[in-house]
What we know:
Helix content: 55-70%
Oligomer: single chain
CATH superfamily of the largest domain: MetI-like
CATH class of the largest domain: Mainly Alpha
Structural class: alpha/beta
Largest sheet: 6 strands, mixed
Mean pLDDT: 88
Distance between the termini: 40 Å
Amino acid sequence: MKKKSRPIGKTLTILMIAFFYLPILYMMVFSFNEGKSLTVFTGFSLRWYKHMLESRDMMEALYTTFSIALLATAISTVTGTIAAIGLSKSRRIVRDLMKQVNNLPLMNPDIVTAIGFMLLFITFKVDKGYMTMLLAHVAFCIPYVILSVMPKIRSLDPNLADAAMDLGAKPFQAITKVIVPQIMPGVFSGALIAFTMSVDDFIISYFVTGNGVKNLSIMVYTMSKRVNPSINAVSTLVVVIITVALLLINVMPLVLEKQKKKAEMGKRNLLLPIVGAVCVAAVVFLVFGMKKEPSDLPYAGQTLRIYMPGEYVGEEIFPEFEAKTGAVVVVENFDSNEQMYIKVANGESYDILIPSDYMIQRLIQENYLQKLDPEKLTCMEDLQDAVKNQPYDALNKYSVSYFWGTVGIVYDKTKVSEEDLEKEGYSIFLDEKYRGDIYLYDSERDSFMMALKALGYSMNTENQEELDGAYDWLVQCVTTMKPEIVTDEIIDNMAQGRKALGLCYSGDATYIMSENEDMGFYMPLEGTNRWYDAMVIPANAQNTDLAHEFINFISSYDYAYANSAYVGYTSPNWEVMDVLSGVDGDYEGINAYLPRTDYELDEVFVYNAETRKIISNLWSRVKIAASNAK
């Protein structure tokens, strides 16, 4: 039996290693991909590493990640070790109580801890940024250190410290020269866990940071919202750094074992100062190494804080603006309009927000925005009429368009005919000919828009029967058609032709069509959502003059062109749109880049709190039905 079990055990081990390491290997291989696809290797290239090294945001995220990890590890290791030694000398009732208190953060869900920290900093009006992230990391690392050190302390003779003091050692010497060397394996283990937890953390960091401070987890998360192969490059770099660190950690003890006992202890005693020096050097470099020289530019020394969706701006826009004005641009990214609203409602201060139409309407209604100064705006004449005077801001008193577009059906022309699309419209998502070969977009607004339009209703309906009808339509779709419900994964997947069709934003369809000539984009005759993302200035903005300057800057031809050409969404600048969609333009012949205008059945979303709650609940039920149907 033992002989038979060995091959099975080896096989299972190999399978487990493959399960854990093949995805990492896959990522590393694609970090050298010449093309932009995250799934199809088109040739070897270092372009994404070059892009990573030239990206200020990525390099700052790298510095933030490892400087905070080193500092948090050093502080939490010292604090946790001292706390563990102190608890070992406490009464049992105190020790047991603190043990439960220490276990609570370990068992608590990260999202609860994150919200708790966020509310704490908001309550005490602490500006979120580097220090708040560091404090949070120290706080959640300390329990892991205590948990690692306590078993080693329990294994010691309880009279060891007393014996050392009887022999003439002072209390501090008894701890540092007698107790600590004996528990060093536990201290070292706790430090490693603390470092790992700090580097790995995303959720807590995401909620406690601010002022544009991001670690790599946050950076990769925001980059993953759209196709950006630099994700693979920066992730590979992190894997290499951690691998080298682990090799050093495992090799160093072997080297030290060959030394004499005295020399070995001397090197151990040097470990903490070395780590401390590295941490201090990292912070000094982070804080002072990136400061710019004083400038005589008009906004030198000022800071522009922008809150916007991730991966939604050209690479050179912010550096160019900083070079032109002398200002520093601090950017934070949000996943959804609702997440943005929560921060604004809680008093977070930004100079510019870039929300969507319906959210702008809500922010205006709740007095979270200030009116723009027409005398400071020189860009309005550059914008086409189609982006002005929309229902969410009828006279453009509060907003200037950033990007705009529609929602439609992206499809594989080799699998789907335009005749079918014209005949069926959105009902093609119920055509069993395409069963298992469609994508639904994981957006309650857009999915219900599709269902409501398919039934001939307005997407802004407040009628409960019509909403229930749309719910039934979507349930029928997810239970009979077996769609894959996705978000931005649809971009790369449709560019590779993995499904026949899917609901898609026009800007994403523009990229898909530019990558694959077999892809098409169709806007059903039942009407669609014509959406607008726009720049607004919050009521509590601290630098309104600079905010107006940025709005003019990014709306001008040169920078609007660079922005739209990079992102792929339609520019509100009429000249840019004409050039990019015209002869020899980047998007020549790509109809997705040109939004449909003046079509009576196309609508703009109108904010209605009660209706949004209803749709949100119904969409949750649709997704449950989809899960049950699998």
